[in-house]
């Protein structure tokens, strides 16, 4: 089975996908890393060189053309479910799990993140919360199409397994 983990940046998609895959002995794929390898540059560089439209097209292509092992946990980019038919494609090709967190919690995590996120540059405090609230309002309709949803607070592999209705094979 393929599991696609979706949610807003900073919700823990990569961390929890990796932990779930390790526990189950599944393959782990971070689609952002696959995209960067294919593009030969970072997502930030691609974005600034070619723009969001080109990035979203490449991201969708990477999602659909990557070869997945039978048992794989996939970490997706935060915006990936919200473009083209990506969410429908993931639901048709595996199970999807939305890691849901409040704008305040996401802002706290992103403000202290070591990862460079170009879209957040210079935003702090209330401005960051406001930005996330707006973006989340745009995206949540797509995230909520996931076959499974889990509250991201007090996360554990066991909580993920419970949300997916699965235990280690």
Automatic annotation (TrEMBL):
It catalyses: shikimate + ATP = 3-phosphoshikimate + ADP + H(+). Keywords: Amino-acid biosynthesis, Aromatic amino acid biosynthesis, ATP-binding, Cytoplasm, Kinase, Magnesium, Metal-binding, Nucleotide-binding, Transferase. Belongs to the shikimate kinase family. InterPro entries: P-loop_NTPase (IPR027417), Shikimate/glucono_kinase (IPR031322), Shikimate_kinase/TSH1 (IPR000623). SUPFAM superfamilies: P-loop containing nucleoside triphosphate hydrolases (SSF52540). Substrate binds at residues 32, 56, 78, 139. It is an enzyme of class 2 (transferase). Pathway: Metabolic intermediate biosynthesis; chorismate biosynthesis; chorismate from D-erythrose 4-phosphate and phosphoenolpyruvate: step 5/7. This is Shikimate kinase. GO terms for cellular component: cytosol. Catalyzes the specific phosphorylation of the 3-hydroxyl group of shikimic acid using ATP as a cosubstrate. It is found in: Cytoplasm. It comes from the Bacteria. GO terms for molecular function: ATP binding; magnesium ion binding; shikimate kinase activity. Monomer. Its cofactor is Mg(2+). The keyword Nuclease does not apply. One of its GO terms (biological process) is chorismate biosynthetic process. Binds 1 Mg(2+) ion per subunit. ATP binds at residues 10-15, 117. Its EC number is 2.7.1.71. Mg(2+) binds at residue 14.
């Amino acid at each position: 089975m393929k599991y696609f983990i979706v949610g807003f940046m900073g919700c823990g998609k990569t961390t929890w996908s990796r932990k779930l895959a390790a526990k189950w002995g599944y393959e782990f794929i971070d689609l952002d890393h696959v995209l960067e390898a294919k593009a030969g540059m970072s997502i930030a560089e691609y974005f600034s060189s070619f723009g969001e439209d080109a990035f979203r097209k490449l991201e969708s292509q990477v999602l659909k053309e990557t070869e997945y092992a039978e048992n794989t946990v996939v970490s997706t980019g935060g915006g990936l479910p919200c473009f083209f038919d990506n969410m429908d494609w993931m639901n048709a090709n595996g199970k999807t799990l939305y890691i849901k967190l409040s704008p305040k919690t996401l802002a706290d995590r992103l403000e202290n993140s070591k990862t460079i996120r170009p879209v957040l540059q210079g935003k702090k405090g209330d401005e960051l919360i406001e930005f996330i609230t707006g973006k989340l309002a745009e995206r949540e309709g797509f995230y909520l199409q996931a076959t499974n949803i889990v509250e991201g607070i007090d996360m554990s592999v066991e909580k993920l397994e419970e949300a997916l209705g699965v235990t280690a094979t």
